[in-house]
Amino acid sequence: MLFNSLAFAIFFPIVIILYFLIPHRFRWIFLLLASYYFYMCWKAEYALLIMLSTIVDYFVAIKMSNIPEKSKRKKWLFISLFVNLGLLFTFKYFNFFGNSLNAIFDSINIMAEVPAFKLLLPVGISFYTFQTLSYSIDVYNGKVAPEKHFGIFALYVSFFPQLVAGPIERPDRLLPQFREKFKFDYERVVDGIRMMAWGFFMKLVIADNVAPIVDVVFKSPEKYEGFQVILATFFFAYQIFCDFAGYSIIAIGTAKVMGYDLMQNFNRPYFATSVRDFWQRWHISLSTWFRDYVYIPLGGNRVVKWRWYYNLMVTFVVSGLWHGANWTFVVWGFLHGFYLVFAIVSQPFRDRFNASVGLDKIPGLLTFFQVGITFILACLAWIFFRAQSVGDAFTLIANIPKLKMSQLSWDIIPGKGSDIVTAFIFIGVLTTIHFLQEYPKWSNPLFSKSPAVRWVTYILIGLVTLSFGRFASSEFIYFRF
């Protein structure tokens, strides 16, 4: 069931009304049933995978809690890792690695073939797998006590607002909330609905309106050059941000209406002043997951320099592979790892350059350049993320320098002239709002003292969404991961 569907428009108010009518002690049962129904609307059979992960990690955690010595708990942690990562590998990566091996075998004339399986990728498997793994690992490390109530733990794994695309919640944040008694709170409900409206604006008005323009170029990379590729890349940067951040905001708002507090997943990433800053603002629940469960266990930055660089590269390559079973995602992750390593190595040289030209004495201008460069680097990496193959990505990059004045026409991409203008207008609106949020000294005097201005803004956003939004129930991009 998609957030941007008629089914959800019916499902959500029914769930909210019944949630507040049902006595607190029975709410976990109702939410668990609603969450499984929500997921089973895609493919009922794959709910069995969530059940399996839930059962395994519940009993593994109980077993680990009964063993004082950490070294003796390890075998139970391995069971959790084996089951969860095994399911993820089977459904998401088996054919990818099999096809890659077959290509290697063919290139060296080995007569062998890894069979392929026709498996549909379960929606959200990467998200709920990481969420339940964080629980098992935290219990193993003694950071959280195991949840003895099986139903509440099952709800933690399957909670419908963030089940299929995050935020990836940690057990110490979300599990205790299921025991709290939330009463209907008008201000909280309005705040949650307002967040949902903003998320729908980002998804329906921006992401879904630029998607057809992006698709035209990336489906036929050899046909487009220069400003056409630049435009499509720029639009994809906003498509994926508005699509995914929009989902996250809707999820956070949905949970907030019921009283639950989900973590912030995006913090205006295109205002980042460095790639490191970008990853502190983009998909925060995932980047902190990889930091805590991959990067730090590898040694983080508490090792010799070459090992530090290695830890960064491994973390980002694995992060890239998490996003999809394609070499394009591996290259995307590698690029971000390279950006970070290069930034560390070049920091002294960049500091000296900024001082020599006087940029360090003009902080506003320096910030402007840093934001611009970071955005360009992110867009270059997005080409690999969006392209259908690594070869297509290199074709697009090779075509960028082929700039022609004739490309700067109303129909820079044939047949999309008016759509492009509309997209720029709403991206401009989004950027303006984010600018005011990033620099509150500009917005506080206007919004904090004038509720009327806020409500007019909310109403306008709602009217714009109804007028310009695409209500074709298009899938959210991160549902594929």
Fold and architecture overview:
About 70% of the residues lie in helices and about 0% in strands. It is mainly α and about 475 residues long. The protein is globular and about 70 Å long.
List keywords for this structure.
mainly alpha; 2 domains
The overall number of domains is: 2
Largest sheet data: none
Report strand %.
under 5%
Alpha plus pi helix count: 18
**Spans of at least 5 consecutive residues with low confidence:** none
State the helical fraction: over 70%
Q: TL;DR?
A:
With 481 residues, this protein is mainly α. The chain is built from 18 helices and no strands.
Show the helix and strand layout.
Blueprint: H1 6-21, H2 24-40, H3 47-65, H4 70-107, H5 125-140, H6 150-158, H7 171-174, H8 186-219, H9 227-258, H10 275-279, H11 284-298, H12 305-323, H13 327-357, H14 363-386, H15 390-399, H16 417-438, H17 440-447, H18 451-468
